[in-house]
Amino acid sequence: MADTEEGAQLFREAWIAGVRRHFPGEPKAGYVTPWAETPEWEREAAGAVYAQVRQFLELSDGHAARLTREQKSRFVATAWTAQMYRRFENPKPGYVADWPELPAWQRETDADIFEAIEGTR
Questions:
Q1: Model confidence, pTM
Q2: Is the distance from CB of 108 to CB of 73 less than 8 angstroms?
Q3: By CB neighbour count within 10 A (0-12 exposed, 13-18 middle, 19+ buried), where does 36 fall?
Q4: Which of 78, 80, 72, 2 is nearest to 42 (CA)?
């Protein structure tokens, strides 16, 4: 996938699928907002994180596939946090929580996102 918008959309679709798979109960509507209704800042952030994961995979010559799910999840979470600091002067605490503070469903979803991007190689 060469196009950043396509990559951002893949990121969002993987997020929604992960939320539906891992979230306990009914997720907030904002967690599963379709791509067409996703705010521009969130689309841009998703595209940036997608590009970072792709570059990481390329620079590791595919060996990043050997990372654990936790390591993959941490990478996505850290890249997302950097985007939140880039886009908001004072981001919501939940947007920039450190990986151990994230709920289990979100950690699993972040790993799913990495693996979805990995699957596009």
A1: 0.93
A2: yes
A3: exposed
A4: 80
Half-sphere exposure of 86 (CA within 13 A, CB side): 13
Q: Of all residues in the chain, what percent are helix, strand and coil, respectively (each to 5)?
A: 75, 0, 25
Q: Which amino acid is at 91?
A: P
H or E, element range at 106: helix 104-118
The residue to which tokens 């705010």 are assigned:
39
User: How many beta carbons lie within 10 A of that of residue 28, not counting itself?
Assistant: 9
Residue with the larger pLDDT of the pair 118 and 62: 118
The runs of H, that is alpha helices, within 3-103 are: 4-22, 40-59, 69-87
| Residue 46 tokens, joined | 């998703």
Burial class of 46 by CB neighbour count within 10 A (0 to 12, 13 to 18, 19+):
buried
